[in-house]
Specification:
Layout lengths: L13 E2 L4 E9 L3 E8 L4 E8 L5 E3 L5 E3 L2 H24 L10 E7 L2 E7 L3 E3 H8 L5 H21 L2 E2 L8 E4 L4 E3 L6 E2 L21 H4 L8 H17 L6 H7 L12 H10 L11 H9 L24 H47 L28 E5 L13 E4 L7 E4 L2 E10 L8 E5 L3 E4 L6
Antiparallel strand pairs: 1-2, 2-3, 3-4, 4-8, 5-6, 7-8, 9-11, 10-13, 11-12, 14-15, 14-19, 16-17, 17-18
């Protein structure tokens, strides 16, 4: 991963009244920087995450963080609330003592931004390990070592009615003792039981790993199964070294969308395909359901990956030979009835044909000058699905349309943080075009949601409001 040193604190910088010293850089992304640091008082190695929005924040020479104008300030203030909430939720999860969830120890504001301190994991993300390996991971190793630990973490998370919503290889750390830790809860959402869903709009999505209800920001359908979809996509990536299939591919190709998974482990393929069902009610509904299925030797029920279930029988726990034999048996049972019906239709058709011929003959005799025309019905070929356009580059855009959260004036400005968020959007199997997540700043509030790329106009710079 390339680190932009200009956006980072200098090595050796001191934070929180000289409590922490920055030692090295771990990562910097669209929403923040992560450092390896030392708690000087206790001589303990820790990791520190800093809120720093790429394209919005600037690093000054005195290490402070600044935002260029009031519009950007509103965006930053919104993310500051989300950042601090993430830290507090993780701190609350410390009570569970689950070793597979990153633990937070401190939260403070300094340099015009916010920081939280967490455990330092002496290891690498599964994404980095996959790149270092140069080849996919063995499915048996994934099932026995990686999957159970992630399920343990999700079980605790979901017990607190908290959904991670961004599970992917880069957010799963593996230390030198093969212990898994789930990190980066910036996208997580919490729902209180029996409450009216108090979710804020989703801040970021990872194409290929985000379930359809997450892409459509359908809050009422988001739940444990949303994380399990992402987990299935993660297992796919780790077992193939390839990006997970898009929802459109699954909808069109069914089980054939998973052909890259190893053929010698049908149980693994069935599990991944089950977890990556398009419709939420077809997926496993809880961690417990997955564990029970694994205990019962992967006895997964019939899986339908698209509206055309005929494409989805292979390797999904359905015995094709049984299906064929049942079809043949039914055909034999209905054969005499079918022949009788066919004969009856032939007699009726012949009678109608003779009647029609007599009427045509009478008309021709009475009106010899009349030209007989035959109307033909044109069969319309199905229109090909439009190909998605190239993703919009990361940058600053004027919002010139409407958003599904609320509408704003034409002078409203938005920032597209991630260029690859423009994954083709499908609703009920119909291509809806290329949609992008945006945040809108106007009237002192900052709602967010999805809009089509045609509603975004790129600007060279963000004008003063």
């Amino acid at each position: 991963m390339t680190i932009d040193a200009n956006s980072m604190l200098q090595k050796g910088a001191l934070l929180h009244n000289n409590t922490y010293r920055i030692d090295n850089y771990l990562s910097n992304g669209g929403f923040g920087n992560t450092y390896r640091a030392t708690n000087i008082e206790f001589n303990e190695v820790v990791a520190i995450k800093e809120l720093f929005l790429k394209g919005i924040c600037q690093r000054n020479t005195d290490s402070t963080v600044s935002v260029s104008n009031s519009t950007n300030s509103q965006l930053f203030d919104q993310q500051l609330v989300i950042f601090k909430r993430e830290a507090k939720r993780l701190r609350e999860l410390n009570k569970s003592s689950n070793r597979h969830i990153i633990k937070v120890h401190d939260l403070f504001e300094e340099n015009g931004t916010a920081y939280y301190v967490m455990d330092y994991i002496d290891g690498k993300s599964l994404e980095s390990l996959l790149e270092d390996n140069g080849k996919p991971f063995n499915t048996e190793w994934l099932k026995k070592n990686i999957l159970p630990q992630i399920l343990d973490a999700l079980d605790v998370l979901h017990h607190y009615n908290l959904w991670h919503l961004d599970i992917k290889p880069s957010n799963i750390m593996l230390d030198n003792n093969d212990n898994v830790t789930l990190i980066d809860f910036g996208t997580s959402k919490q729902i209180e039981p029996y409450s009216t869903y108090g979710l804020t709009s989703v801040t970021a999505l990872t194409p290929g790993y985000a379930a359809i209800e997450l892409q459509e920001n359908n809050k009422k359908k988001i739940g444990p199964w949303t994380d399990l979809y992402s987990l299935g996509a993660t297992l796919y990536n780790l077992a193939t070294g390839k990006n997970p299939p898009k929802i459109s591919d699954i909808n069109d190709n069914g089980i054939n969308a998973f052909l890259l998974l190893p053929d010698d482990d049908s149980n693994f393929k069935k599990l991944v395909a089950w977890m990556m069902q398009i419709h939420v009610d077809k997926r496993p509904q809880s961690v417990t359901e997955i564990r029970q299925t694994i205990t019962n030797n992967y006895s997964i029920q019939t899986v339908s990956l698209s509206k055309n279930s005929d494409n989805n029988r292979d390797n999904l726990g359905i015995d094709n030979q049984t299906i064929i034999s049942k079809k043949k048996k039914k055909e034999k049972q209905h054969l005499p009835l079918f022949l009788l019906l066919l004969a009856l239709l032939g007699i009726i058709g012949f009678a109608l044909y003779n009647s029609s011929s007599r009427q045509t003959s009478t008309i021709s005799t009475a009106h010899p000058a009349t030209t007989q025309t035959t109307s033909t019905t044109k069969v319309q070929k199905p229109k090909p699905k439009p190909k998605p356009k190239q993703p919009l580059p990361t940058g600053i855009y004027a919002f010139i349309g409407r958003c599904n959260v609320r509408s704003g004036p034409s002078t409203t400005y938005s920032v597209v943080y991630e260029a690859n968020n423009g994954e083709p959007c499908f609703y009920d199997g119909v291509h809806q075009g290329d949609w992008y997540y945006i945040e809108i700043a106007f009237g002192g509030v900052t709602p967010s949601g999805w809009t089509h790329r045609d509603n975004l106009k790129q600007l060279d710079h963000l004008p003063d409001p």
